[in-house]
Amino acid sequence: MDFDLQWLLIGLPLAFALGWLASRFDLRQLRRDGREGARAYFKGLTLLLNEQHDKAIDAFIETVQRDADTAELQFGLGNLFRRRGEFERAVRVHQHLLERGDLKAAERQRAQYALAQDFVKAGLFDRAESAFHALLDTPFDQEARLALLALHERARDWAAASAEARELERRGHGAFGLRIAHHACERALEAEARGDAAGADTALREALDAAPQAVRPRLLAAERMASLGRPAEALQAYDALLLPHPAAWPLAAAGYARCAVALGRQAAAREAIGRAYADDPGIDLLQALLLVQDDEAARQRLVIEHLQRRPGLVAAARVLELPCTAWGEQAAAQVRDAVAAAAQPLLRYRCAGCGFEPQHYFWQCPGCQGWDTLPPRRLEAL
After folding, report:
1. Which of 30, 284, 290, 339 has the fewest Cβ atoms nearer than 10 Å?
2. What's the Rg (C-alpha) of the chain?
């Protein structure tokens, strides 16, 4: 009994000492690992700030390999891959996060959203749509629905896009009436292209109901009436559009002029288009004015006066369509000036290294300081 007690008295301190030594060793190892992980992280951050992205990625990968539980760093690494266009690597990082069993629900949803963004950037729209659907009715619901709306619009699935926009509006995420009206206008154009007159009319009514004051549905309605051989109704539709939206004149002027000519109302159209042209003398309104002019001399005078109002290459091109005898010395000089101004950018050189475009030739580029980087030919010769 004394012998057993003696060994017990010796063994207890020994066990305590061995445990203390083991804990010290573990603590030192943990501290060393922590210091090395932090060092790799800050090294990656420094490289990232210095725009050395490849080396920064390598440093972050090293950090992740040391501590696979660093979810925040993995998120950053995946986003960095996506920004650099390395979508496959970004997908792998975010899929690895989703496969972790210890990830909290909020972090899992965040990884799902990041993965969906990876698919969008990679052009994998079907997989992106599925990934965003998995986020519906989560804290990422609004972001997911907006992304789905954009995907439907990109796929030209106008019915699905309208349904998503209405759901966003129902949930109080904004007003989408104008966007829904555009979707209906697109459906109207598709119906008209395949000869479905009833479908086109229904879609246009939906567009007007969604956004009664929008320009596009009213403009399409007027154009549709004109195409159906109903110029009087089309002209009324144009008037109803242009009275509250005078800025839409450049879009509607040509159709307005053609309807007026079909009805023999050139004089009234000249007055209406002329008022709009006086406020904003653009080329679209000029062309509409030329359509309702009966006199050739009046047409030539309008073109010459337009060049004086808006000297430029577009106006000069219209003047060049006239007989030379109609120009006059002032118009000829303005045509020369317009052509010279348009040609001026083509007289530059372009550096093959940085794209800098000087007017004079340099042996050393002022932009990138490179030698012999400017080809000895001006842009007009390329």
Report:
1. 30
2. 35
| Residue in 209, 210, 288 with CA at minimum distance from that of residue 248 | 288
CA distances from 87 to 51, 55, 81, 353, 362 (A): 19, 18, 6, 28, 41
Query: Up-side HSE of residue 158: CA atoms within 13 Å toward CB?
Result: 16
Describe the crossing of helices 158-170 and 177-193 by its angle, rounded to 10 degrees: 160
- Which residue's structure tokens are 């300081």? 369
What is the CA 215 to chain-centroid distance, rounded?
22
d(CA 253, CA 251) in angstroms, rounded, equals 6
Residue 112 burial class via C-beta count within 10 angstroms: exposed 0-12, middle 13-18, buried 19 and up: buried
Tokens of 130: 């599925």
Question: What are the two backbone dihedrals, phi and then psi, of residue 114, each rounded to the nearest 5 degrees?
Answer: -65, -40
Q: What is the mean pLDDT of each run of 10 residues along the chain (382 residues)?
A: 51 54 48 49 52 55 53 74 83 81 85 92 94 95 96 96 96 94 96 94 95 94 94 95 94 96 94 93 93 89 87 82 79 82 84 91 91 88 62
Of 197, 260, 198, which is closest to residue 231 (Cα–Cα)?
260
